[in-house]
Each structure stands twice: as structure tokens, then as C-alpha cells.
What we know:
By secondary structure, the chain is α/β, with parallel strands linked by helices. The chain folds into two domains: 17-174 and 300-318, Rossmann fold; 192-287, no CATH class. It contains seven helices and eleven strands. It has helices at residues 30-44, 67-81, 219-226, 241-247, 267-273, 289-301, 303-318; strands spanning 17-22, 49-53, 107-112, 125-129, 147-150, 164-169, 192-195, 211-213, 231-234, 251-254, 276-277. The chain has a six-stranded parallel sheet. It has a five-stranded parallel sheet with strand order 8-7-9-10-11, covered by helices on one side. β1 (17-22), α1 and β2 (49-53) form a beta-alpha-beta unit. The longest helix has 16 residues, at 303-318. It is elongated, with a radius of gyration of 21 Å. The termini are close together.
Amino acid sequence: xxxxxxxxxxxxxxxxxxxxxxxxxxxxxxxxxxxxxxxxxxxxxxxxxxxxxxxxxxxxxxxxxxxxxxxxxxxxxxxxxxxxxxxxxxxxxxxxxxxxxxxxxxxxxxxxxxxxxxxxxxxxxxxxxxxxxxxxxxxxxxxxxxxxxxxxxxxxxxxxxxxxxxxxxxxxxxxxxxxxxxxxxxxxxxxxxxxxxxxxxxxxxxxxxxxxxxxxxxxxxxxxxxxxxxxxxxxxxxxxxxxxxxxxxxxxxxxxxxxxxxxxxxxxxxxxxxxxxxxxxxxxxxxxxxxxxxxxxxxxxxxxxxxxxxxxxxxxxxx
Length: 319
């Protein structure tokens, strides 16, 4: 695999294409965004990459490399092709022809951790743990000699026979900075906005009489809300909307959880960006949007090296 001068030894098999098994683009689902962003960043780095439409195969009994399997995949591919969406700002595209799957010796397929088995019949399988394996589905039907990447260094280790978990932490964040910024913010902010998301089981702790729930709204709608309200209250401690609110100059509070506390929560977020943990600390909330913006731009510039590290690891493992 070649990335800006990085090339596996000619004595070894080189991975020539990375196929990402991803759902249609959804601006509100972080895992989906990252799968598309991976393909985007690979293409930007000169590594050939495309996307195959995700489908849930947990209840299917597929026979690898069989004619039935190919016909099944063809039907899935054609069904998803016409309605499949990508982010217009990304360098991403669907697989051109399913016949390209006939010879995957020099291809690697990236599956998110929720995928059972190897539905595309790939010879080189990469699993990207966007959450701990089995968390969402209760199933970890993986194969032999696979390469794993984690989205966070804090994620618990997962082991399977003859497979390897890379030390490379694979994480790409995407910030729609064309929407979340300080342009056209209200001179007199009023009220609050809040989200539930993964914190939907928490008890509501704030006054709802002048508060707007952002769950399910588009980025365009949410950005407009963030520029008008004084405070954003997040019941989800790790949603990207925390950062989006700060970028719009909105004070932000994260609601405490019984399974979480200030020592566990990312205190650097409070120290750098003015986010506070717990409604009782709302008077301390600030909105250091300029600091956050500089950090975002700095992080984006590091993705080139991350792709290089990813590529070297892939070539080395499957050589």
C-alpha cells in the first residue's frame, strides 16, 4: 500500500485497495461518519478506497466464496446503490462493480465491530472497534488472523486467536465548521438547548419550559439553535454536540451519571474549553471557542500521519 512514499517491501504482498463496509451517510451517527471519513482520508493520502453498502447479516447463513454468496451480495448491492448517500465534502464513492470482489487477494475490507463473520468473503479482514465488540449486538462472530483497530486507547482489550490489536488508535473526527462557528450569533442569548442521545436514561434535571431538544434535528437546525441560546445541557457525556455548542459560543454543561464521575470524565475539556460537569457548576461554564477551533485544526493536520501508520500496519500484518 502506497501512502506519500510509504511502500511495503516488494517481497511482500501489498494491499492495493481498502474497501470499507459502511452504512449510507448519516450526519447524526458518529460511527457512520468515521467509517466514511476513513475512506475519505485514505483517498486523500493516495490509497485507493471505496465503500460497500452495509447490511445486517447476523441472521443470515452465508457460505463464503460460493455462487449463492455472490448472488446474495449482488442483490444487496443493487438494492442499496440507488439510495446510498455520501458526504459531498468527502472523497468517497461506492464500489464501482461487485465483480471486483472476485479477486480480493490484494484488498483489505474494514468491518465495524458490529459485523458478524466475513460477509464479503474478504481474504484480509480489518475490524474497527468503534465500540467494544458485542456491546450493541451481543455477538462477536469473528474470524482467524484478523487485524483490529480501536477508536480509543481507553477501550478494554479484546483478544481472538491469531488476530492482532494494533497499537495505532484509529479515530477521525469531523466538524462541519461551515455551520458551527461564531457567524451570525445572537447578541442577546436566551434559554437553553439540550440533548439526550446515549444519556436518555438519565433523569431530567433542568427546567424544560424554555429548553429546546436537539435530538433528531439536522446540523443546520442545531447550529442555528446553538447560536441563539445561552446554554447547552448534554445528558450524553461524550457526544460531539458538546464541541459543536462551544464552537457557536454556547456555554455547555454535561449532566452527571451514577456510573461516571468527575475523576473519570475528561477534565481537560473543562480546563481548556469551559465545559462543566454537573448542573450545580453552571455558573463556571464558559465558551472558549477559539481554543477549541485551534485544537480541531491541529488534530485534522495529524490525520495524514495516522493514515501512514494505519497503512504500514496493514501491509505488515497481511504481508
